[in-house]
Amino acid sequence: MLRESQQFMFHLDEVYVLLPAKFQDSNPQHLWFFAELDYAEESLLELTRLDGAHQSKLFMIDMMIEALRDPGTNGVQLNDAQFWDLSKTIRHLGQKVAGAYWSLTNYTSVNGVDGPPFWYFGPSPPDETVLQEAVDLSVHAKAIIGS
Fold it and tell me: What is the domain range of residue 123?
């Protein structure tokens, strides 16, 4: 889960950089943008497979990726404030998903109450608060692009 959340963040960082190409069909980076969306979605779907307990939250994030991929949003005109808000939201979304699965507090515990004991090396649940923040960001991004 840690690796897939990291890959998701890396690909969403590329989407963040290539976002202007989304709204310009003639831009040669347009295809690269969609490839990175595909890679991000592959990582997210693998994460969903590994973390069945949080499928509904991860699928909500996937719906934002689908909205970004939707050809009907190519001609959407965003003003500068909306564009930068969308851009910032996409970047933070990747960081939040990775942060939910990278949190060291999820992996260690002194008394076994706060998390798995320090000797446990199996999968650990994500930070629920951070994952919910990621879902909220995906809903916000979807609302910006109007899907």
Answer: 2-145
Residue 35, burial from CB neighbour count under 10 angstroms (0-12, 13-18, 19+) = middle
User: What is the number of structural domains in the chain?
Assistant: 1
- Phi/psi for 28 (5° steps) reads -65, -20
Q: How far is CA 69 from the centre of its chain?
A: 14
87 CB contacts (<8 Å, ≥6 apart)?
A: 16, 19
CB 103 within 8 A of CB 6: no
Output 62 or 119, whichever has higher pLDDT: 62
CB atoms inside a 10 Å sphere around CB 38: 13
Cβ neighbours of residue 103 under 8 Å, at least 6 residues apart? 126, 127, 130
pLDDT over 90 (residue 36):
yes
- Pair of tokens at residue 6: 């990291």
Q: Taking the model in full, what pTM does it have?
A: 0.82
